[in-house]
Design a protein that fits this description.
GO terms for molecular function: 2 iron, 2 sulfur cluster binding; metal ion binding; oxidoreductase activity. With about 160 residues, the protein is α+β, with helices and mostly antiparallel strands. About 50% of the residues lie in helices and about 10% in strands. Bound molecules: FE2/S2 (inorganic) cluster.
C-alpha cells in the first residue's frame, strides 16, 4: 500500500465508507496533500466502492476541493454579486499585480495560488477573501498588499 492509499484507508476507517462520508474523506486528503489528483480520486472511489464519476463530480462541485497542485497559501477571492459590486476586481488586480500571477495560477516559488470562489457568507463585509482557512473582509487593495506582505515575511 502506498502513502496515498494508506491515507485514504485511514480516513475511510475514521469517517466511514458510505456516500455521505465522501466529502469528509476528500477534505481530509486535501488537508494533507493540498489537492486531489486524478489518481487519488480513483483510489478514493476504489476504497469507498463509489463510482469514480461521483468522486470527480464532487470535486468539481466544491471549489475548496482542489484538483490541481496548489501553493502553500491558497487565496480565494469571492466573485459573487455583493463582493463583485464592492470591488473584488480591484482586489484581484492588486493581488495579480503584486504576485504576478493570474486567476488559477501559482507563483513559481509555490507559495501562493490565486482562485475565485462563490459567496463566502461575508457579504455584509464585502469584499471578502480566504487565505487557506483564514477569512479577510472589507479588503481594499492597500489592505491586501499588507496582508500578502505579512504572509511573504512569515515564510522568508
Ligand atoms: S458575495 Fe462575497 S461573501 Fe457573499
Amino acid at each position: 500500500m502506498n502513502p496515498i492509499q494508506s491515507l485514504i484507508k485511514d480516513l475511510a476507517d475514521q469517517y466511514g465508507r458510505k456516500r455521505e462520508n465522501l466529502l469528509p474523506v476528500m477534505q481530509g486528503v486535501v488537508q494533507k496533500e493540498k489537492y486531489l489528483s486524478e489518481y487519488t480520486m480513483i483510489e478514493i472511489a476504489r476504497e469507498m466502492d463509489i463510482p469514480a464519476a461521483e468522486v470527480f463530480g464532487t470535486a468539481t462541485f466544491y471549489s475548496f476541493l482542489e484538483t490541481k497542485p496548489a501553493g502553500q497559501f491558497i487565496i480565494r477571492v469571492c466573485k459573487t454579486i455583493t463582493c463583485a459590486m464592492k470591488g473584488k476586481n480591484q482586489l484581484l488586480f492588486a493581488i495579480q499585480d503584486m504576485l504576478k500571477i493570474k486567476i488559477g495560477e501559482t507563483t513559481p516559488d509555490n507559495k501562493f495560488t490565486l482562485l475565485e470562489t462563490n459567496c463566502l457568507g461575508w457579504c455584509h463585509k464585502a469584499p471578502a477573501m480566504l487565505i487557506n482557512d483564514d477569512v479577510y473582509t472589507e479588503v481594499t487593495p492597500e489592505k491586501v498588499r499588507e496582508i500578502l506582505t505579512g504572509y511573504i515575511k512569515e515564510t522568508n
